[in-house]
Design brief:
Blueprint lengths: L7 E3 L16 H12 L4 E3 L28 H6 L19 H22 L3 H10 L1 H16 L10 H4 L3 H10 L1 H27 L3 E3 L11 H5 L6
Parallel strand pairs: 1-2, 2-3
Amino acid sequence: MKSSRESGLLLHPTSLPGHEGIGTIGRGAVEFLDSLQRSEQNWWQMLPVGPTGYADSPYQSPSAFAGNPLMVDLSHLASEGLLDGNNVPVDGHVGPVDYGRVTAIKPVLLDQAAATFQLTGTRADEFEKFRSDNSSWLADYSLYAALKQVHDGRSWIEWDHRVRDRDPDSLDEARRSLSDSIRSVEITQFFFEMQWESLRREASGREIGLVGDLPIFVAHDSADVWANRHLFD
């Protein structure tokens, strides 16, 4: 049984050392758990782990539910045969993240892994269960992310008025025309979820608790507000 007094550290996963230009929730995170265990720490406190928004802040996320795809460990995807290991970046990373460089490279590789995942059909049942279990937010977020990309990253209030105001016919057309991008977002979220759950199991096996964090408010430029405007003033 743990004592009444415990200690731990606060560290955002993106600050972990690694080889992808940004810390991930893969091998580097497990190595950090090992260091916590060796130093007899009981808690790892994190900042929000959702996608970053304005100024790359985890407190301005385009979703209150999604995971940050930049924290997916590419080397793990390569080990599953979803990526060519020769394409995984090998530059060392310590210190502040160069988001400009990372966001120019990593999403392309994640799209490649998602395409391979879809072609191979591996873990298809798990993926469909993930989609079903997270249907309350995943469909809106994946559509929002695809629309944001075709609108050059602009806030939803600047989109074509038909999709901005969620005209049903326009949304149906967007789902058809952007189906590949939407599915890639869903699969990447599945990658994040699988690696996140693996990290939680690793932490539990070392009797280390993970302490989360949330913004006080959801971001205005988010799938949450765009899809649920009736809940916001």
